[in-house]
């Protein structure tokens, strides 16, 4: 993980390229310079002097162009303050290849993309979107299975439905807090109103216009409605900023000819080669409209249902009773339309789909907003004799949501297991069940947040006086699941710690054997062994997710059983056991409530610090670099996908440079930058791929992405990438907790993986290392002599002219 500097990536030297230097270069169509242009035909330009280029892509956390290029004077070649390509100032001033880098080697460019994820302090607030991001990840964890497109579409459909229930759950939790706990229960009890004077105007004792129960509910409904509007706004703003960047067009004249060879997804390759993979603008717009409408309909149902239940009583006003039935039917019909929109279609990856369903998007949101307004008017109608007592009927709604999520996850597990059995991969996480497990964790996270927040607000309003009925029983039991879940995590951490200690002791003998004849330094040996053992914890991630999933299943079942048991009153000998269980549950609920409050305070503190501290902003950005690599295919309210900007940037830069110079290019990616580099290489036309070599180091391509996303980075996909590009070399260390070998299953060409690099470079003091060499782990790969050596070998294997097309593999190429 690269360490960020204090200097933001967008800052650079003020020098601008003058005429005859960089001006002609930055003005080219398709590159994001000071003048923007759409993907059109390449202009006839003279070739640039250099014939070898190394395009560096940094990893998670970000860095500065000065640090990447090893020079304090850098110039932005193309791009903006969000993402840009930089060069050393000397390289932009030179006119001959020999003058461009006196130190030898290719001309170096740095693509800096860290501001896509951590450049703004408001990114701290994206922690609120964590459940949405997690369920979106489940979409991309589908097992790899050839010739099963319908089953794959069914998998995506189930994930989209689970994501929709998650939106409804969190909006319903906001309704529970605002409508039930505040407006219905606390505002209806005079003792609670005295403790919270800001509710005086809602109190029935005040006799004001807002004191009627329906009007109190209508006023409180503005809070969850505003939350839904905020989620829509954030999604729409990021949609315009991230999903609006066109990838390199495959049309004629754009320099990206249609694929006639190489790997296609049907040839057991990766879907990342498809032209529309990084352009999900249409799907996100449809899903955003559906989820916004679902949120508004949830608020409308929360307001309408209590009033309709009162109007359905015998002897009630017939006109209001009829309006209640009509409004309920309209809500159900609009809800069915929302589900239909979510189920209707998924991603369009085989082509660049630039159309937008504007009529559908507008009409769906307008219909939901209209029903919400009608529900507010209906609930605010005067109803003599209506009094607020007890709690609103929320148990059936939350119980139904929990049951629906459970059934969807079970169905998703069945589909995932079927796909996995079509082509088993022993290294796939959880034997193909990684996606269902992550989807379950997303639903559990939403349930714990909903129950914890509801219980914490109820405790804050009520204190210890037992004035209020509290939140629904199911939410209370979900809040009680927080302490045992933390206890399981502590036990798991203790077990992993013991295992790491055993591995460290075993590594000490291995370290001693690697340095024969050298005087042993016990502390040095322990440090190297401990670093290697800690790096191995990454490979235990499937175990952690499996334990959390099993714990979630047990606690979820216990919460549902506890909620059902609370409604029954045992008698006889079972009464004492019931009271004991109830006492334990109440203690757990109280602890969970305070833990939620503590977590909220920590979140606010961290968010405030992120607004002032650039290093804190980058730290928070690291949390999203992995999770937000993937497009928003299941949940439109998830944090935006930075790769939908970064991948087109890289492909445009490589295609235009090779087109103008006909030179050789090394695409050099570190950590998460290697994943972006691989994704960009997949998007290149075959003629460009033949002049591109891939150099990855500290790469999680197989260790993380290949295991958790086998359909896109599994062994067949990586083998296809190795076949399609000219050459590939991968560097890694045993002390690296993120990077590892890529294990390309191809014996016909030289191995992709270099043997593990030495870390540290010297065990003791040597003439070359008179001071102790540091243990680098995941950082500073370019300081290893193997980096320069392997880069030179890659350039030597490339030919300056356009290489011939590789022979096709298989019957379909």
What share of residues are in beta strands? 5-15%
The total of beta strands comes to: 7
Q: Give the class from helix and strand content and strand pairing.
A: mainly alpha
Look at the structure and give the CATH class of the domain at 23-113 and 642-797. Answer: Alpha Beta
Between the first and last Cα atoms, what is the distance in angstroms? 38 Å
Radius of gyration: 30 Å
| Major pleated sheet | 7 strands, mixed
Q: Give the % helix.
A: 40-55%
CATH topology label of the domain at 23-113 and 642-797:
Rossmann fold
Q: What is the average of the pLDDT values?
A: 82
> Taking strands numbered 1, 2, ... along the chain, how are they ordered across the largest sheet?
2-3-4-1-5-6-7
User: What is the second-level CATH architecture of the domain at 23-113 and 642-797?
Assistant: 3-Layer(aba) Sandwich
Describe this structure in words.
By secondary structure, the chain is mainly alpha-helical. The chain has a domain at 23-113 and 642-797: Rossmann fold (3-Layer(aba) Sandwich). It has helices at residues 23-26, 65-69, 89-93, 97-100, 115-118, 130-140, 149-186, 190-195, 213-220, 222-242, 281-311, 318-344, 358-379, 395-422, 434-462, 473-479, 482-514, 522-535, 541-566, 574-612, 614-625, 643-661, 672-683, 686-689, 701-708, 710-713, 715-724, 785-797; strands at residues 52-57, 74-79, 84-88, 107-112, 664-670, 692-697, 727-731. Helix 12 packs antiparallel against helix 13. It is globular and about 95 Å long. Mean pLDDT is 82; it is low at 1-49, 94-102, 251-267 and 801-813.
């Amino acid at each position: 993980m690269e360490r960020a500097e204090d200097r933001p990536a967008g800052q650079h030297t003020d020098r601008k390229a003058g005429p005859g230097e960089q001006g002609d270069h930055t003005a080219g169509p398709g590159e994001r310079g000071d003048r923007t242009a759409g993907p059109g035909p390449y202009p006839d330009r003279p070739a640039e002097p250099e014939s070898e280029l190394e395009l560096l892509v940094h990893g998670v956390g970000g860095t500065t162009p000065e640090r990447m290029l090893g020079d304090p004077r850098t110039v932005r070649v193309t791009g903006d303050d969000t993402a840009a390509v930089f060069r050393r100032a000397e390289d932009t001033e030179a006119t001959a290849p020999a003058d461009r880098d006196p130190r030898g080697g290719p001309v170096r460019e740095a693509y800096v993309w860290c501001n896509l994820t951590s450049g703004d302090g408001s990114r701290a607030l994206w922690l609120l979107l964590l459940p949405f991001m997690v369920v979106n990840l489940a979409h991309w964890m589908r097992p790899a299975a050839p010739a099963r497109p319908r089953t794959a579409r069914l998998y995506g459909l189930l994930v989209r439905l689970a994501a929709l229930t998650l939106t409804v759950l969190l909006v319903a939790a906001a309704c529970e807090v605002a409508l039930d706990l505040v407006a219905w229960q606390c505002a209806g009890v005079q003792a609670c109103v005295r403790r919270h004077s800001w509710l005086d105007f809602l109190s029935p004792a005040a006799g004001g216009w807002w004191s009627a129960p329906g009007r109190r509910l209508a006023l409180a409904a503005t809070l969850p409605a505003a939350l839904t509007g905020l989620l829509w706004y954030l999604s729409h703003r990021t949609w315009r900023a991230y999903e609006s960047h066109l990838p390199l067009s495959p049309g004629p004249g754009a320099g990206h000819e249609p694929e006639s060879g190489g790997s296609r997804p049907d040839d057991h390759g990766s879907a990342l080669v498809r032209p529309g993979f990084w352009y999900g603008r249409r799907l996100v717009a449809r899903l955003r409209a559906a989820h916004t409408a679902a949120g508004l309909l949830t608020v409308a149902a929360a307001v309408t249902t209590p009033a309709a239940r009162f109007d359905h009583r015998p002897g009630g006003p017939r006109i209001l009773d009829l309006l209640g039935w009509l409004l309920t039917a309209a809500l159900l019909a609009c809800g069915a339309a929302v589900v239909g929109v979510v189920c209707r279609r998924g991603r369009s990856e085989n082509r660049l789909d630039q159309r937008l369903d504007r009529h559908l998007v507008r009409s769906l949101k307008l219909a939901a907003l209209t029903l919400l307004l009608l529900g507010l008017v209906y609930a605010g109608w005067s109803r003599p004799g209506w009094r607020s007592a007890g709690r609103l009927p929320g148990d059936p709604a939350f119980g139904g949501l929990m049951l629906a999520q459970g059934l969807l996850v079970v169905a998703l597990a069945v589909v995932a297991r079927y796909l996995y059995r079509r082509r088993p991969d022993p290294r796939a996480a959880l034997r193909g069940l990684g996606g269902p497990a992550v989807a379950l964790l997303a639903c559990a996270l939403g349930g714990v947040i909903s129950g914890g927040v509801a219980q914490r607000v109820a405790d804050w309003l009520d204190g210890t006086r037992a004035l209020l009925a509290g939140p629904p029983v199911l939410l209370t039991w979900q809040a009680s699941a927080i302490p045992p879940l933390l206890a399981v995590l502590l036990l798991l951490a203790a077990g992993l710690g013991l295992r790491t200690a055993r591995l460290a002791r075993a590594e000490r003998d291995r370290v001693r054997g690697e340095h024969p004849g050298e005087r042993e330094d016990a502390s040095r040996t322990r440090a190297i062994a401990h670093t290697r053992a800690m790096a191995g914890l990454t490979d235990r991630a499937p175990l952690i997710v499996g334990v959390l999933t099993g714990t979630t299943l047990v606690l979820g079942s216990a919460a549902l059983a506890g909620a059902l048991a609370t409604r029954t009153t045992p008698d006889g000998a079972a009464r004492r056991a019931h009271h004991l269980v109830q006492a334990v549950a109440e203690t757990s609920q109280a602890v969970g409530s305070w833990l939620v409050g503590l977590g909220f305070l920590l979140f606010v503190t961290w968010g405030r610090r992120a607004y002032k501290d650039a290093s804190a902003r980058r730290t928070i950005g690291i949390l999203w670099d992995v999770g937000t690599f993937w497009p928003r295919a299941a949940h439109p309210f998830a944090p935006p996908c930075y790769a939908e900007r970064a991948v087109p940037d890289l492909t445009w830069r490589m295609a235009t440079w090779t087109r103008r110079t006909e030179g050789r290019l090394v695409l050099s990616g570190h950590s998460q930058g290697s994943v972006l580099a691989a994704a960009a290489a997949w998007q290149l036309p075959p003629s460009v791929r033949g002049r591109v070599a891939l150099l990855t180091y500290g790469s999680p391509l197989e260790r993380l992405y290949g295991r958790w996303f086998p359909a896109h980075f599994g062994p067949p996909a990586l083998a296809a990438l190795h076949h399609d590009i000219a050459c590939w070399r991968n560097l890694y260390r045993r002390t690296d907790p993120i990077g590892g070998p890529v294990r390309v299953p191809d014996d016909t060409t030289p191995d992709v993986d270099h043997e593990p690099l030495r870390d540290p470079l010297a065990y003791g003091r040597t003439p070359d290392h008179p001071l102790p060499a540091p243990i680098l782990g995941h950082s500073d790969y370019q300081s290893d002599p193997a980096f320069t050596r392997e880069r030179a070998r890659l350039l030597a294997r490339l030919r300056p002219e356009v290489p011939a097309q590789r022979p096709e593999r298989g019957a379909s190429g």
